[in-house]
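To whoever picks this up:

The parser on our side crashed when reading a file containing two proteins. I've narrowed it down to the boundary between the first structure block and the second sequence. Both blocks are reproduced below exactly, byte for byte. First block:
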Amino acid sequence: MLRLLAVLAMLLTWVSGAHSSPNDSVKVLPDSSNFVTASLLTISPTNEVYSVFGHTAIRMECPVHQLDYVFTFESDPSVNGFVTFFAGKAKARFIAVPTQEFIESMRGLGRGVKQYELNLTLHEEQELWRNLDNDMVEGAHRKFNLLVNNCVSMTVMKLHQSCINEHIEWGKEGKLTLLDNGDYVRQCVGRSPWAEFLFITFMGSVCEESYGYESRLCPENIITEMKKASFVSEEDEKRPVLTGEEKELLPVTGTLKETKVTPMLLFVVLLVFTCLLTFAEWRWNWIKPARIYDVILFVTQTLLGLGLLYITFVSELLGSHWNWYLIPFNPLPLILWLCLRKQKNYGRIYLLYTVVLVAFIALTPFLSQLDVPHQLITVVLAVRCGSKYWNYKLNKK
């Protein structure tokens, strides 16, 4: 269905171009350099998880035939799309939206839009438009991936594909490649603590790696980097990738709300509550409240572990990578409890798990994925496991 709609949209574009009367007020220059104009659009971020990085799109204009479209690489942002996104099944595709319609949709969200003209030749602009049209016709044939198939990577790919007898040469990489992937993502989404928490949770050991330069481009830095980049011909002639001045098509009217309840605050409160409850369990014999809390805690831990296992090994939202948080979050403790709880020395498993958790906490300075907000939860699990082992030891005497 999406493919059919895309084909119809493109046909309508061609038909409108073929049958609309040329705009006589637009004079084509002798070299036809203003017949088609290609521009890069950057859209400001929002608090939503799927748009916290901001957005990048390509605007294609043919003033003579009154054609003006924004080609934007999109996945489904609906509730169902949010679920399929984290399930690793979100499909993404280029869609063409009339520029004014696109601007109005951003206005409704309070997002700002800025435009930067690309310094492509006429034939390259035509090739870019053709490539975007062809990609749109193919429909949602790509699996959305934060590290590979995203709005910036697809935009850069289309620029590479549209170069004719030349290539893009980037400027000095600067600080972009100095950080590992984990710290780079933290830098990009630091304004949204919960988005940062989620992305770091799912990234796994890829946090320890350092991806290449183009993989580090995002809506926030792509203009800075493109201002340093050049188109280089086979004769080694260079011209800048961007030309002209920045144009603000739409000012930012929405505000990025600061989250009052951050992961750090929430899990500090959880740890304090856990410590107080554990103290009350030992000081005033609050056995039943502690048991109820343990059931809630470890059932939640198991469910989170199952979800993390799925995202790591099935959905591959960020590719196939080991995830360090599978050590504290996995269904193994529940499986052991179900199978061995009636065994005489079962309580020693609590000691073993406590030791594993403490050792995992000690790794925090050495692994980029591990950070304080996540490890506060690990401390909570360690406190309760240690308490349960101590109970077992006392009851055995």
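<<boundary where parser fails>>
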Amino acid sequence: MTEEDLSRIILQDQDVPPEIATLSQTTVTYAGGKSCSLPGEQPGTNGSTLVSRSYDAPEPFPQVGAQRVIVTSALHSSDEGAKGEFECLAASVSQGDLERLLKPEWHLFSYEDIPSMSLGEEQLSHHYIAVNAEGLVFLESYWSTFRRGKVTAVLNIRAPLGNISAEQFETLATKLDQRVHEGLLSLQ
């Protein structure tokens, strides 16, 4: 399996409108075990391959588009490995992102799960808004984690409030799921 084969399980340039973001080149990293462990769980011996792309806006609060985009797809050695990774990611995804964003100068303004999305075989999606201590800057984040077969995937978009719509996020998450599905078929 080549890096070109693996790049099929992640968003492509044509999937992301330029007014949202321009993703980095695809990076492929081979790992010896799970990147996420549940409490009390021993590190696994099964390997996985992480395929990722990202974007960071050149200015901290862009007038249009995303401030930050992270897209990852991890191909695991088995469905069971992917199921375990999904459970771990689902348990820590909101806490991890909130801890990174909500430093002392940021406060959670609103938080909601997005139950209507249909991604993969298992999924968890949510949306939240944070405001800075002065109450002048609002940032919103959309986050989806899902599992399809041997792949776990994450899409996270953070932007100034109103720059990215829920529909734009759902379109990108659905496209990522489609890429994972098609990529898995091509890897068989």
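After patching the parser it read the second block fine. Confidence is low (pLDDT under 50) at residues 38-45. The first strand starts at residue 27 and ends at 31.
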